[in-house]
Amino acid sequence: MSPTPAPLPTDLAQGLALVGERLGLFGGDVLWYPDVGSTNDVAGVLAEHGAGEGVVVVAERQTAGRGRYGRVWASPAGAGLYLSVVLRPVRPAPLLTLAAGVAVAEGLLVSTGLQASLKWPNDVHLGERKVAGILAESTASHTILGVGINLRPAGYPPDVAARATSVEAELGRSVDRGLVLGACLCALTARYRDLQAGCAAAIVTAWRARAAATMGRRVEWESDGQRRQGTAEGIAEDGALLVRAESGLVRVLSGEVRWT
Question: Could you tell me the pTM of the whole model?
Fold first, then answer.
């Protein structure tokens, strides 16, 4: 059973109204919750009960926000944008997470002027610190795409604080979260249309341009139970990370990658 949504806060409603029809797929149902366990879980329940593609779930606070591999995503009230969208792609889109990263970076640029960089597969950075993350969870009938963006400095756990930043910390001023939400959803609409139209090359090109700073760095990953190392060289057309290892060029399609 999903919690009951509350009226959309004025600043978010105004931010969405400013972009209007450019929201496209995400211009219909935007559901606001003051407090949830996880926006991905709420959106997943809605999808299982027939919610259509494009439903957006946004929360003020998450008590059980998560990233990849079940890691905790710190989601204190008033500090970030925590949202999930319901998608029903005809077939799974391996590039969806990369497309979402591009969209968040584009949305931040439009709404704040900040130039974000990307790190494979789902991290959005400002400088050397992480400002946003993406989590895609799929079933046979739908995909829930979750996005967490750190907007304001907050009392994060020490391990998070050491590697995280926020939009306001980088800008040195306050930011309108409604503008950020609207810009990111508009960009996500455009990049999802690219996927639907078979224009994966446009996403790959945009992702490579924003990830140039991470290429040439050493990475570690696990394959067949063994820890391997190499140098990141780029991504393939299907989104796989290309790593130069002792054995040659290796494609890393999934699993945890540690950047050193």
Answer: 0.92
**Domains in the chain, CATH or no CATH each:** 10-210 (3.30.930.10), 215-259 (2.30.30.100)
Cross-strand partners of 19:
none
d(CA 80, CA 154): 9
Residues paired with residue 136 on neighbouring β-strands, in sequence order: 145
What's the start-to-end Cα distance of the chain, in Å? 42
CB neighbourhood size of 197 (10 A): 9
Over the range 17-49, which residues count as b (16 or more CB within 10 Å of their CB) and which as e?
Answer: eebeeebbbbbeebbbbeebbbbbbbbbebbee
Task: Please give the DSSP secondary-structure letter assigned to residue 26.
Answer: G
- From first to last of its 260 residues, the chain has per-residue pLDDT tens of 568 899 999 999 999 999 999 999 999 899 999 999 899 999 999 999 999 999 999 999 888 566 565 565 666 768 899 999 999 986 657 799 999 999 999 999 999 999 999 999 889 999 989 999 999 999 989 999 999 999 988 766 667 667 889 999 999 999 999 999 999 999 999 999 999 998 999 999 999 999 988 898 998 988 777 888 999 999 999 999 999 988 889 898 877 788 87
| Sequence-separated (6 or more) residues with CB below 8 Å from residue 76 | 61, 154, 155, 156
Report yes or no: 219 and 230 within 8 Å, Cβ to Cβ. Answer: yes
